[in-house]
Amino acid sequence: MKTEFRKANQKDSPVIWKILKQAIERRKKDGSNQWQDGYPNKDVISLDIQKEVGYVLLLENEVVGYSAILINDEPEYNNIQGAWITNEGFVVYHRVAIAEEHIGKGLAKELLKHIDEYAIQNNIMSVKADTNFDNPAMLNLFKKNGYKYCGEVFFRGTPRKAFEKILEV
Q1: N or C terminus of the chain with fewer C-beta within 10 Å?
Q2: 3-166 maps to which CATH number?
Q3: H or E element: which one contains 159?
Q4: Cis bond leading into 40, ω under 30°?
């Protein structure tokens, strides 16, 4: 499977929003509270793209996945209840979503692989992320991809499980 990974642009917005709406609905069907409070939304995606932190995963030139990727930019991570493995520079990603018709093809794992490569290209060996307690797909993805549980962080008053992965070159 050959994928591409690139910065999102405003032309990508409609398909990114479609993918995120599918993910929001999937979380709802799973009985999760994650993403059921109006976040993420079109404005968040637009801001990601303006700030040049939105990235898309392409399969045969079709946008099939999305994530926002930031460097050393998650203030809530300073308030972890627990402890990070490192306190050095880190890449953090949010809003991971794969198009409904491509679920189960290993594309989320592929997306994380590209995020690891992005970190290494920026000379960063720590990748941090978080998810809801009731998101078994993402929790499993963290486990399969070498992430270590570090504690809890809070977003919009909700606790989230926080993870870190140390990269090796």
Answers
A1: C
A2: 3.40.630.30
A3: strand 158-166
A4: yes
Tokens 């018709």: give the residue: 101
List the structure tokens of 60.
Answer: 């045969």
- CA–CA–CA angle 52, 75, 157 (5° rounding): 110
SS (H, E, C) 39-88: CCCHHHHHHHHHCCCEEEEEECCEEEEEEEEEECCCHHHHHCEECCCCCC
Structure tokens at 144: 């399969």
DSSP state for residue 150 in the 8-state scheme: E
Cα–Cα distance between 41 and 45 in angstroms, integer? 7
The answer to pTM > 0.85 is yes
Phi and psi dihedrals of 20, rounded to 5?
-65, -40
Distances (CA, A) of 140 to 11, 29, 84, 135, 144: 32, 18, 19, 9, 6
In degrees, rounded to 5, the angle at the alpha carbon of residue 95 between the alpha carbons of residues 153 and 87 is 40
